[in-house]
């Protein structure tokens, strides 16, 4: 099986020297983790090679060399790099996701190029990927790609990992392209983030912007499920933990110690970025020196800043301000033999950096917002029996796992100063205990474990989606059902109403049946082999008004009332007045929840929240069910959560009990049942295994088949009706029935028009 990893950059840097192309492998955490998957998959990588190449012959040479490594380049023009990468990716999405709203730039050409480049990646994937392959898309530069791939390859197994924070709904909603970006991400089968906070923000945003329904961490889109999960990325723990004893690093450790002498070393390592809190860190260190003069000349802050995005204006301005503030601190406190801040504006080799980790007494990792931050984990991993203290921002994803760090709010510079004092005075024994506990965590949650967990989760949801697709009512399946239907003579046809025979409406009273539905029901009941039953949660007065003229059997309020053909209504339960305390509780939730309403039936109370804000409605539903539990236990009532409704009713009847009543009266050689809600699962469970059970919308483990859209129900029933008895007498019966029903339908329309005018 092939695994295609899609990222903005390939794990190799291509450079040109003397008309020759040089290829240098990257050793980043992502590349390391994904390399561990080579034993299970034939691994390919698609991405930009990091070089602007215009000549076709040069592009071909690079492609041929990279494809020897199973790398497939996507070449970008200088304009695309500027507008897609430096523009929309890093001047629009990056600042917004890191809560730097004022830095966010909106330009139409940024967005158009971002979409254009995502389409370029999509075309490259389409040419390389087979339907049985797996695609794993990486990060915010390619948020549209999963959706684009889903359009052209509906059954492809697609994963997406978002490596940066996902902001709250209130922030993400300001993006003009918010809906398109979300739909792009939701093209994946599995969407993962570093922390549960980001998962919560994403689900809340998708529910509010796209009006989706998530059940915990899962949503259904058409004929597939989308899973959302939190998978914290780790590091290659053993590589870092063993490095201090290597022959290449030992002399570097000695040199680092000699350079900083017997002074305490505080280490800070970052890319140049405003999200890293570098200036706040400097202010905190300045405050520490001011309030703790006893440490003057005894502690040094080694600040490593790796150049990044120098061409972006906000980054160049940040670099200038950092230079000025470091100069101010050094000018204020330095002596002939001591410089408070040692500033390195360049990268270090892996060996040099780990030597600094090993020697450093304190690691100061205080980003204002960070998806994960692996520097914190690397520092802890390198420690091999020697002490050290990690000061970590609570805004970094790593803080969720590293509970033994000194966690601080990076916006509070005085707290940074206090944390430095605590760290420098912490007993060695406590330092070692904290490090050991954090090493236990990161040695288990490694980058290899992260990659394996993601692939396992992706495989599971893709298996589920394949199973769901197999239940789909395909043309072949439909023909088999019709064949059985034609060759049987005693049939029971059971239909839910809302969400099955009629679409869900924001206002339930607007869901009256239309002419086409009457027509197909008339055709079905005209066939003497059929017994048609509409089983609904609606009250029996509404059911009588809508279907009273039809010779169909009706069950209302989940089986509490039933009617045989054109006969009268029967009650399964004697109605008593509703408990005042119960009514008061449910009405209180109506008052507290704008646009919700309480429907009082004879045998059920239904609190509807379809028109309520997604988040508030879900919260209130959970609160209502919690509040109802003790009361309903005392009153012997059942709580039934449904699609945007919480219903309270007697447990003595349900759609399942109605099915059992029907099956006791007659034997059938063909049974069809269709429903869309959790209440219909009771109906499916009560039927024999041979019954044709069809869940409309979300898949059900109790139904044999699925029909994804409610709009497909009527065409399905029309096919069913057309395949039944076609004799002359039946046609006459249908014609007479239609005349009667059309008169009834016309009266309904007239009454509705009068109500609207009122």
TrEMBL record:
Biological classification of the source: Bacteria, Pseudomonadati, Bacteroidota, Bacteroidia, Bacteroidales
- Could you tell me which SUPFAM superfamilies the record lists for this protein? HAD-like, UDP-Glycosyltransferase/glycogen phosphorylase
The record's annotation in Gene3D superfamilies points to:
Glycogen Phosphorylase B, HAD superfamily/HAD-like, Trehalose-6-phosphate phosphatase related protein, domain 2
What are the GO BP annotations of this UniProt entry? trehalose biosynthetic process
Cellular component, GO, one term: cytosol
Q: One GO molecular-function annotation for this sequence?
A: alpha,alpha-trehalose-phosphate synthase (UDP-forming) activity
Endpoints of the signal sequence: none
Q: What is this protein called?
A: Bifunctional alpha,alpha-trehalose-phosphate synthase (UDP-forming)/trehalose-phosphatase
Q: Which InterPro entries match?
A: Glyco_trans_20 (IPR001830), HAD-like_sf (IPR036412), HAD-SF_hydro_IIB (IPR006379), HAD_sf (IPR023214), Trehalose_PPase (IPR003337)
Q: Which family does it belong to?
A: In the C-terminal section; belongs to the trehalose phosphatase family. Belongs to the glycosyltransferase 20 family.
Superkingdom of the source species: Bacteria
Species per Swiss-Prot/TrEMBL record: Alistipes onderdonkii
